[in-house]
Amino acid sequence: xxxxxxxxxxxxxxxxxxxxxxxxxxxxxxxxxxxxxxxxxxxxxxxxxxxxxxxxxxxxxxxxxxxxxxxxxxxxxxxxxxxxxxxxxxxxxxxxxxxxxxxxxxxxxxxxxxxxxxxxxxxxxxxxxxxxxxxxxxxxxxxxxxxxxxxxxxxxxxxxxxxxxxxxxxxxxxxxxxxxxxxxxxxxxxxxxxxxxxxxxxxxxxxxxxxxxxxxxxxxxxxxxxxxxxxxxxxxxxxxxxxxxxxxxxxxxxxxxxxxxxxxxxxxxxxxxxxxxxxxxxxxxxxxxxxxxxxxxxxxxxxxxxxxxxxxxxxxxxxxxxxxxxxxxxxxxxxxxxxxxxxxxxxxxxxxxxxxxxxxxxxxxxxxxxxxxxxxxxxxxxxxxxxxxxxxxxxxxxxxxxxxxxxxxxxxxxxxxxxxxxxxxxxxxxxxxxxxxxxxxxxxxxxxxxxxxxxxxxxxxxxxxxxxxxxxxxxxxxxxxxxxxxxxxxxxxxxxxxxxxxxxxxxxxxxxxxxxxxxxxxxxxxxxxxxxxxxxxxxxxxxxxxx
Length: 547
Description:
By secondary structure, this protein is of the alpha/beta class.
């Protein structure tokens, strides 16, 4: 049996191009074109730096501006130093104008703040990044992700001002800005200036209330409820409900001041603790004096007023004041407790210099001006210093200085002054010569006893004299005499016969007087008329007139 020989097939290459390769080549070309088109038409890549990536997911978290999607987070990684988070965001095409130096990014999530509850729509959709574009012309692709959303947008109508305060932590972002109790703005930023060691706040006051901010306004903390106990009573001021919950800042023009001119953005003002402290901060020119009080200064605090007959002229600076003193306790034992005060020129009258204040106070001290501690409130026991004239001066005052400060004389006042006078009176009573006075009093009492005995003897003699029968009959005899006198007066009454006879005799006497008048007239002219017959006189003739 013969086995057939096997032949090996020969392979010949295909010399013709197959049209099947058109499909993959076209797909590759389309893919390359799509990659090129996508690369050419994709938006810019923005890098955001944040302290953490809470709520941010790569490939899911969108970036929105005015509720419109403008980009998406593509990656979330730690930075090279492992201290922060780097978030890369791919923006959509034509969004480059939104990315400038003033643009701001922050995460929108459910949040409860002083201004209310925000971000409730993210409970179902998840957190997203909000983009607020700025007005700058410089494009920036590297930004910091804000932890707190900005209060107002950059293009919002209004004014931004800055406040400086010595107190830290008095205001927070979101606190209201009030004008006479009405909310007109918000606190935007709260920073601490390390170099100046002060708090720096940025406020945004929206239009049209920005016109109220002038160069004469003053800002102070609005704590919601202001409780003040003064000698005039209790004063309670309530600003608003918002400030009652979270505090805030108020501003206004002081009473009697002009409105002033409008200010520009970034103008800086001082933040005062309260409205009353504004007046205290206005007096920058003053003269410092040192007072030594021999009585207790408990209740006298720094900031207490210094008054002159009820008018405030200064402020207490330090109680006690031991600075610049080598032996403070010895000084307190010898001279009294030192208290440093300021006499503020602005509280007196306009255009007065510190030199004039020094001269007037020196002259007043020579004439009896003294510093006296007085009680400002019986409830709190607070004290203040009253400058007043004292009439009774024990030793004339001579100008002096101590520890580099001019010294004003002091005097005791109030209860301390009464106590001192009582002690002086007791001391004088102790120094009185008591034994001679007692001896003289004993002699006086003996003499008084003798006089009393003599008076008792006289009274007994008088009683014996009054007991005689003649004196006892005297009242009856006197009564009889009065009755007889009454009868005599009745006999001469108008209706009695004696009175009528006297009246008739008087009438006859008047008639006789009238009858004798012609005779008396004739005898006056001619005394011999009773002997010789009187001839009647010729009638008188008037004289003729002279030629």
